[in-house]
Amino acid sequence: MTVVVCLSLSGLPPASAAGRVLEQRYEQPAAGSSDTGGGCAAGADGCESFPSGPGEVLMGVEITDDAGGLVSASVRWDTDGDGISDTGFKVCGKTEKPQEIPPNTEIRIFVWSAPSSTCPNAMATAGVVKATFLTGASGGDGGTTALASPKAQLGFSDTTPKRDSTITAKTGIRVCGKHAGTTIQLHRKKSGVFRKIASKKLDSNCRATFKVVANFKSATFKSVWPKQDSDHRAGKSRPVTVTTH
User: Fold this and answer.
1) 152-243, what's its fold?
2) In the chain, where does the domain assigned CATH 2.60.120 lie?
3) In which region does residue 43 sit, left (phi positive, over 0), alpha (psi from -120 to 50) or beta (all else)?
4) Backbone angles phi, psi at 58, to 5 degrees
5) What is the rounded average pLDDT of the residues 53-72?
6) Are β-strands 72-76 and 106-111 bridged in parallel, bridged antiparallel, or unpaired?
């Protein structure tokens, strides 16, 4: 069971010119890493929850571990309530500049027990997570509004195909608008990390298909729309697992 410390938006302390600062202490980090994911078991408190307030679209994070070393963390949120975290950002000790976040949203910070590819020497023991929230006008680095997701999608013609057969991965984005002709990528999870295996331009309906040879026992995929305009952040689909027989 994940243990989360929740704060009410109605109880937010006032923001200042330097930003609104919240601190929470962790005594036991989350199991896993920013590469593999993971979570908090009962009794662990390394999955911290911080609410952003109205107009707060930028966030800085700094983690001070009692052991004095760097700490790897992931910052995530779920704006559409589908139970799948939207694209966030990673932290190695602290953010170098404020990062874009959505306002009026529960922001989750996972303090990982293990290092990651972007923070190879990290190791968390116990310490303090400090989150600084800024409005667009105060931050200066990330714009004045939080960016929406284009809602990347992924489906397969068959998720239980015969081994070595060819199947079709159907990708696209829900928020099409002017995004026809932009690029979408197909990623496959290998060694706990999703890596790009192919990319295509979206058609006039913001759809693209990929042919995949199912030469595996089981594999997990997702589609990724890289950030390509000023109106949307990068988007990713739900992971889809294909198992052969």
Assistant:
1) Immunoglobulin-like (2.60.40)
2) 9-139
3) left
4) -135, 150
5) 93
6) antiparallel
